[in-house]
């Protein structure tokens, strides 16, 4: 019987010891391979009646002198703020968003030399109206007091969080419904949720419903829509029975 040299025996044992730790993780990873997954996106939206409006007003004044133009625009702005005080619009709901002064040019055609003939001063004011029943009244008052630009009117909610929560619930329900239908169509079982991510949400105006006149300015009463999206990842099981 041929004997194996001691050195060869030690080398074989060493090789086995080195291979063992490598083979074990490979076997474990093969056993723990992730199950198939499915990713779906759900959408949810909730329409509700707005309870706040934001108005963007503008004041412009022209004069041959820059200082006089700015003084006139400032005078009208002060009158508007005083009127808003009288109407109970809180200071936190009024903000000057832009003050400008630019030259007014003329000429440049038919050989007439182009030059500055005056200056235009501007003052922009953003106002939040929390009582929509008075929105038309507020608009009429500021226009009567000298505002000569109306660049925006948007509706929103003073407390949007509860409505946004309802939109999130609707988005998750929509995603789960889609996942169930897809899994059923594929003939597999729908497993647990692996992850949920929100894609973001926002406001959108709904179609106007009726027109009501308050003071000199008509105001349309409609709805505000809050929407959001969620992306959900589900694990898929074996073929459904």
Automatic annotation (TrEMBL):
InterPro entries documented for this protein: 26kDa_periplasmic_antigen, SIMPL/DUF541
Keyword field contains Signal: yes
Transmembrane segments: none
Keywords tagged on the record: Signal
One GO BP: DNA damage response
Signal peptide: 1-30
Pfam families assigned: SIMPL
Official protein name in the record: SIMPL domain-containing protein
